[in-house]
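agent> step 3/5: call structure_predict on target 'Diguanylate cyclase' (Jeotgalibacillus alimentarius).
agent> reason: downstream docking stage needs a structural representation; sequence fetched in step 2, passing through unchanged.
tool.input:
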Amino acid sequence: MGVFDRMKRDETAATLSASFTVEQEHINELGVFAKAALWAIDIQTGLLTSCTPSIEKICGYPAEMFLRDELKWEHLIPKEYHHLYLENQQQLKLGKPVHSQYQIKDSEGNLRWVNDRVVPEMDATGELVGIYGLVLDITEEKERELRDAYEAEHETLTGLPNQKRLNQDLKEKMAQGDPFTIFSLKLDRMTLVADVIGRQTGEEAVRKMAQLLEVLNQERAKIYHVRKNEFIYVYDRQLDDDEAVKLCWELIDGIQYPIIVDKLELYFTGFVGAAVFPEDGNTPGALIQNVHKALYYAIESGVNSYMVHSKDLSLDTYKRISLDRDLFKAVKDGQFELIFQPIVEADRNMVVGAEALIRWNHPEWGLLSPDEFLNLAEMNGLIADIDNWVLEDVCRSLDLWRRQKVPLVPISVNRSAKSFLQFDTLERMITPLRTYNIDPSLINFELTESSFVENSDRVAEVIAQLREKGFRIALDDFGTGFSSLFHLKEFQVQTLKIDREFIGSLLDESENMAITNAIIQMAQDLDLKVTAEGVEEPAALRWLQERGCDYIQGYIYSKPVSAENIRKIFAKRVLKPVYAGGQQVVEK
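tool.output (status=ok):
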């Protein structure tokens, strides 16, 4: 090396050394607070020429051990990072600074994450002569980052991978091209358990069920928890039909073991669908859609059923899958709307109320009636959310009409059995009335007869509390279910609604006339009011009026209409039957 080169190298080294000294002073000052250390190596000797004392905060070893060459930094690096260390050395020889994150093993054997920034010192000929580095302990930040990444792809409750992780894993498996089989297990009664015994107990039941599924699985498949009551199994190979059927039965049998929560023995049933890559779908979306299609065939077949996907599954099933998939978003985004059908006093044509009827404004399938999605909502545990949305929207409408000086009449609101039996159902019903300052007498809860079949003590308790608050209670679809005179006495409903099944063919079938007449007479004897729904024909209206039916609901007076049009009906109060010169309100 010439004199000029030595002078240039000395000048460069002096500049770097001066800069290093300044930084070293800063690090020493901050070392008490921050886990950061500076170091320098002379390439000719291979020895450390400088190392700040704060290195001990990072690795647990004092700086003197490194300076005396009793310990080398690379000895702290686990084998899985050796390739990174060697790659960094090559980059430094080329005069390129390197920046890397890796783990080291500290003096107590714990793994710690470090952020290592290294700058090479080159001489005039381009030879590496020195290295300067700054190492930071980033263990807390890295663990938080890894924890956040883990939580983003795992269900907090069960610790199992979630839908996001499933989609990513399916993409990776499909890229490999090897056939594999997936199963969808949907638990029944899970939401009912949560509704009846409380959210915390319900969550504990889900967690214990997940543990049971993992034990029964014996690591044969990877399990994903994609919804509260749905688990996906992915097997690494294609199973033949016999194997698939056997595994379906294993899953169904397995979930029938009792789950013990707070000394309660809980039992569950379920349904299983199966599909195979690539014949049942070559994208994650297509494969999941088809395994759900098989699942819904199983659901339609009854409790503890299974179905392996085939290409012959119908469009109706596809629609059910689509609605089931989109229902969560519909609840979140509020894709529902209410229409109202007036209830008219039979002998005076006075509007005395209206029933709120929900519709789902689906972006693909259009306006859907409740028959198309409420059963799905019950299975998915969303029915309570929908019921609560309906009640709140009714209260919002009543508040608006009151501010518009419209005479208010009671609005009938349907309440499902599942949401009615929730442990906090009373508070859920009262909250929106408090919010909008609505008198409880303006809300008439309609309960179907099926609400009374199970947990009758709980039903009686809630009805008594509601009546005490001033709410009205009606028994909907009377005569089609399981009610009895005992139930009418026990639950003290105020109104019976005769199902449209009897009214639609009232004058054509003598049995329907006899049943309807008997219901009206019984209601009068019990001092109950009667509403006939589904009345369309003038002759049926006259027949009901002659027998003292109190209220009429049906096309004979009006189709269900928008909130704005029902407001107009409320404003004029009298609504004549269409055959007597009345005008139906028709949506524009």
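agent> step 4/5: record observation. The domain at 3-144 is CATH 3.30.450.20 (Beta-Lactamase).
agent> proceeding.
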